Each structure stands twice: as structure tokens, then as C-alpha cells.
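Quick one, T. Sequence first:
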Amino acid sequence: MKVRLAAVQPRSGGGSTESRNALEALDWLDRAAAAGADLVMFPEGYPGPVNPANTYDAFGPLAERAAHHKLHVLASRVAAVEGGFAVELHLIDDQGRTAGVYRRTTPRGPYVYRDIDAWDFNYIESSQPPMVVETRLGRIGMLVCSELYTPELSRLLAIQGADIILYPAGGAINEFLPGWRTLVWARAIENIAFTAACQNLYGDEEGVATIAAPEGVLAASTGEGLVIADLDFDRLAFLRREDERIEFPKRYSTIPGVLRWRRPELYGALGASASGKPAT
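C-alpha cells:
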């Protein structure tokens, strides 16, 4: 089985022009459907709103268009919660229903990006760990932006059997781009899963859009547009069931079956804080 993933890297509106993202998101879905996509990923906070000062309904029309095209869609916004606001990812299925919601957990508040006007709100981190969403396309996991840098979160999804892990990013990655691209592929290698990232483009910066498989980067782009790749689930199943052998030539270009190497009894220190004391 193959699943065609389309990562959208849009030139996004902000501030007083942010609401245009809602209409443009529908155009992106039309383009992705025309390209034969099964799953479409938008960046963090897209189509929004991101700034709580802006109020518009992007998700209703988006769900209707997703159902029309029979697409699964990952969309994002900032939503009001008790005490402040949460960064949310919504996975919309091909019937226009919300199949799963993830709220950013890491880092804890106050939000590290509060020095940007649009993000100057009381961010409330979630205490609910990420969960895999079962879909007809496979098991999909979602994390937000720089949560890519917290490998434990991706591994939690891998242990739940995630086939695809999506990392929609906000933007302004700039000097971090080489590391970001490396980590997107690294998360695919170590978790035997497909991974993908994309971001909003607000100026002339290069984008991070990347789709990776355990054995290589499938597609990447620094500019505005759709980044599309076919995810080969049969190959993924092969890499998961095989064990590494001393053979030449090798039948794989990454070490297969690495999730079976886990030894949880050794990992107690992962429950400790950075100071070495038990986490609270």
C-alpha cells in the first residue's frame, strides 16, 4: 500500500491579514487533491487563527472541503483553554470529522516564543501525552514544531505503532534549518516511521519542508508550494519485521527492527528532571 502525503508550505498571512489563510487553505486542498494526495499537512497555526486577537472559522470550511475531496488533513490553530491558550493540531478525516486532537506539551510555559507579538499570549502546555490516531491510511502521530527536538515524544508515538509522524512548524527557523532537516530524517530512522515537516513562510526565509522515510529523504523544498511523496507501507513493514544481518549486498540502507532493541529496564533516568532529581 502507498499513501501520498502533501506537505503545504504556504506564504502565510499574519496580523490583520491572517484571516486570508482560511480561504487560501481551501485552495491548497484543491491543489493537493488534483495532485492525488491522500493526506495533507499544514504548518503550525495554519489556517489558524494563531493570534487570539483574530477570530474567524477556518476549520468548518476546511472540514467540508476535506470531505469533498476525501482527504485526511492536519490543520492547526491556537485555542482558548482554562487559564490561557493552547497550540492545537487537529487531524480531520476524509469524512470531514475530527479524528484526533493534540495540544502542545513541550516546553512548559511561559511560551518560549512570547517575544513575537502574534504569540504574546498566556500559553498553557498540555499534560496529555501524544497519542496515535488510527485512520484508514495507517496510524498517524502529531507533534508541534520544535517538539521534534524532544526524542522521547516521537518514541512514545513509535511505541504506539505510528506509521507517520507529522511535525508542522511555525516558521522563522532560519539558522536552525540544517539541524531541523537532519532531525526529521533521524526521527524516521530511529523510529522506523515516515516523518514530515513544513512551515509558514512570512518573508524571504527558506522553508524546512521535508518528507522522510527510514532509508532516505523522499522530498524537500525551501520554497512556497506543495511537497509531495509516496509513502511505501510495504517497505516500512519489511524494515520493521527484519533484523540486521551480516550480508552483502544489504537489502536495506538503514538498520531494520531497531524498536526491538529497546530495554526499558535501563531507562529509569528518563523519568528524572535535568537536575537528576525525579521529575514532577
